[in-house]
Amino acid sequence: MKPYVKRHKNDSVDAEAICEAVQRPNMRFVGIKSVAQQEILSLHRIRSLAVKNRTALVNQIRGLLAEYGIVFPKSIKQARRAIVLILSDESSEMSANFRVILEDERDELAHLDERIGKYEREIEALAKAEPQCRLLMTIPGVGPITATALLASVGDVRAFKNGRELSAWIGLVPNQHSTGGKAWLTGISKRGNGYLRTLLIHGARAALRVCENKLDRRSQWAVSVSERRGANRAVVALANRMARSAWAMLVKQEAYGASAAV
């Protein structure tokens, strides 16, 4: 709207600019989310924050134990196992006060695990109850979390002309630069919904791991891209295809298959 503001900012000038902008045929508008969409996205935000807090807690535990020369692999599962083993070791040189601190950290980690599990069960129940989510979950690499986030974020998929528009909205298409008749492409734009983009890329990474054992066209294509350009580029390319497939499936109301995978 900024290009349509002619003078200093005030209510009347802003109103005039808005009236001018809405009359432009190529102007893009942000769809208004329903109450149901907002509730689903709120659940996702709460879960995402809990996951970040759990990661921060595990990193804190790793730092505290490193002071005692105790190092364990970087994973939540290994952190839980390490804490149990350390607290059960009576011959450890840790003081009683530090043991109390570590027990508090263990309890906090268990509490976060319980919260995250609760949120994920709620998301899974929502996905099972929604036909559109069940449709999206037929795409390899798309589970309840990605399906509900995609549906709640996008809303009416027909607001996008094609699958590429949806993929561009998520930020999964290359940046394009052109001048003087010359054009070149760089990395993905990373514009739009970063959370949704992250979920699709994580899902694509999981799907790529099993593509070598499949003979369908898209799996073989993903393996070919991975061999030629590297696994990371293949993951992003596969996430792009997943977004396009989601658009085609929601528009046509068809489960995942050859027509949606193209």
Automatic annotation (TrEMBL):
Keywords: Coiled coil. GO terms for molecular function: DNA binding; transposase activity. GO terms for biological process: DNA transposition. Residues 102-129 form a coiled coil. The keyword Transmembrane helix does not apply. PANTHER family: PUTATIVE TRANSPOSASE FOR IS117-RELATED, TRANSPOSASE FOR INSERTION SEQUENCE ELEMENT IS1111A. This is Putative transposase IS116/IS110/IS902 family protein. It comes from Magnetofaba australis IT-1.
